[in-house]
TrEMBL record:
Domain of life: Eukaryota
Official protein name in the record: tRNA wybutosine-synthesizing protein 4
UniProt similarity note: Belongs to the methyltransferase superfamily. LCMT family.
Native organism taxonomy: Eukaryota, Metazoa, Spiralia, Lophotrochozoa, Brachiopoda
Full-protein residues shown: 5 to 321 of 782
């Protein structure tokens, strides 16, 4: 079908993401002992790449933490196009996810590969089991369901992995409901470097579906803007020219308020001086001009609805 065309290339973007994340964590930019369990062969990336992945990790982490600490009990995170991202494990091990349900969505093959890695790692299984009575995709406590059970790759009490194509929002919603999603709870929907791989018509449908489906929500998007990439990095096929047009797009698709900031702003205004100094000591680095230019090309956007609108001041600093 037309939906499956190009899926392999798009899924491959996850492998490159996770290797780069692992590289920057390995250099001490960002603390995440769980990333390495998702990477077969680690590689060392250039300092400019490490910095790019560092600022991305910090920006997304900042939004997740703001959301979790503010909403407190009973909230949900839905990571759309989650790939092999390890945020759930990192935050759970820190004790931050006491009352948070975490859903991950990606293509079925990607979710299956991720589940296999989790099942083969005692470190990851231990985190998954923290404070849980139920466990495992095949083990005890796994909820058997009639329909779509093939799409529910992992169904633990607080961590669900769903293998569906995001472009089929109806199917996505049915699968999420099957794993116990609550459409009224405060919900953070995350798309970290995902929307750019989806045709604008379909990504708009996803953004609109989320606005129409979740009463109290924040949609966090980390993405590249401006179509020209002067560094020859792998770029997505569908980028928006600037922050304003992205913000306008989310507003038109049903979100009540929308704010965004580029990574220069995030780095200088949200991260403190001490942290920036620490980063400067990690590797020899002198490509500051390239770094600032690159940071201008990435933004984190938050779109709010209902009770989550109150989060905007915290999230945007
Ligand atoms: N969000 C993760 C991260 O930042 O580490 C992964 C980012 S990776 C660049 C893009 C991910 O989006 C891939 O895992 C890919 O499979 C997923 N993706 C892209 N289009 C998708 C679609 N239509 N349905 C489900 N997943 C999709």
């Amino acid at each position: 079908t037309s939906l499956s065309r190009g899926n392999n290339a798009v899924q491959g973007t996850n492998d490159s993401s996770i290797v780069s994340k692992c590289s920057m964590a390995g250099r001490g930019y960002f603390q995440d002992p769980y990333l390495q369990h998702f990477v077969a062969k680690t590689r060392r990336r250039a300092p400019l790449i490490n910095r790019g992945y560092y600022v991305r990790a910090k920006a997304v982490d900042h939004m997740l933490r703001c959301f979790i600490t503010h909403t407190g009990a009973n909230s949900q995170v839905i990571s759309l196009g989650a790939g092999f991202d390890s945020a759930y494990f990192r935050l759970k091990a820190e004790g931050l996810l006491q009352d948070t349900l975490w859903f991950e969505v990606d293509f079925l093959e990607t979710m299956k590969r991720k589940a296999a890695l989790i099942n083969n790692s005692q470190v990851l299984l231990d985190v998954l089991q923290l404070g849980q009575s139920q466990m495992g995709s095949e083990g005890q406590g796994h909820k058997q369901t009639e329909n779509m059970e093939a799409n529910i790759v992992l169904d633990c009490s607080d961590f669900k992995m769903v293998g569906v194509d995001l472009r089929d929002t109806g199917h996505l919603e049915r699968c999420l409901k099957m794993t116990g999603v609550d459409l009224t709870l405060p919900t953070l929907l995350l798309s970290e470097c995902v929307m750019t791989y989806i045709e604008p018509k379909s990504s708009s449908a996803i953004i609109q579906w989320a606005a129409n489906t979740f009463t109290n929500a924040v949609f966090v998007t980390y993405e590249q803007i401006l179509p020209n990439d002067p560094f020859g990095m792998v770029i997505g096929i569908h980028t928006y020219p600037d922050a304003d047009s992205q913000e306008k797009r989310y507003r038109e698709l049903g979100w009540s308020s929308v704010h965004s900031m580029n990574m220069n702003h995030f780095y200088t205004n949200i991260l403190d001086l001490e942290e920036r100094r620490r980063v400067d000591t990690l590797e020899p680095f002198d490509e500051y001009e390239e770094w600032h230019l690159k940071c201008c090309h990435y933004l984190v956007l938050c779109a709010y609805r209902g009770s989550c609108s109150a989060l905007s001041q915290d999230m945007m600093g």
